[in-house]
Amino acid sequence: MKEKADPQLAPVSEPQTSSVVSVDRVTLPDLPAIIAIDLDITGSEKPEYWYGLYAANQSDANSPFLAAHVDAEVVGYIVGSFRAWEFGAPRCGWVHAIGVKPDSRKLGVATKLFEELARHLMAVGATTIRTMIHIDNQVLMSFFRFQGMTAGPFIELEMSLDALSETGRDIA
């Protein structure tokens, strides 16, 4: 008798179910599920952010906001944009956010979302996709590397504005 393969050992790209994942532009009824997925992932509820993003993206074909559905249930989302010359970079696509329900992470949802975003961005002229992630987020780092992304030519710099005001400089 042949043993079943351990699903924990399956390659990242191999879907673990025959469920059909569909990806479409986000609709207003998708937002409560997206907010819940984001809350589950980040621990922070941000309804104003998500509703504002939805409203802004309704009139911007260059900023895809996509949802993944399995059996009519929202199981993931991705937010992107097409930008030109920000930070001196030529025209490129950006991934601003991606999230998948934890119980749907072995269905190939994130890969489908990423591929559909790439199609949207290519259609408006992007030849490169960029993103920023927290240095400690190994899950996202692994995902984006699996998609073929590598370190780019830019370095993010930041500083606390509290630290600036503590220097005695007048910034008010």
UniProtKB/TrEMBL annotation:
PROSITE patterns: GNAT (PS51186). This is N-acetyltransferase domain-containing protein. Residues 21-164 form the N-acetyltransferase domain. CDD domains: NAT_SF. InterPro entries: Acyl_CoA_acyltransferase (IPR016181), GNAT_dom (IPR000182). One of its GO terms (molecular function) is acyltransferase activity, transferring groups other than amino-acyl groups. It comes from the Bacteria.
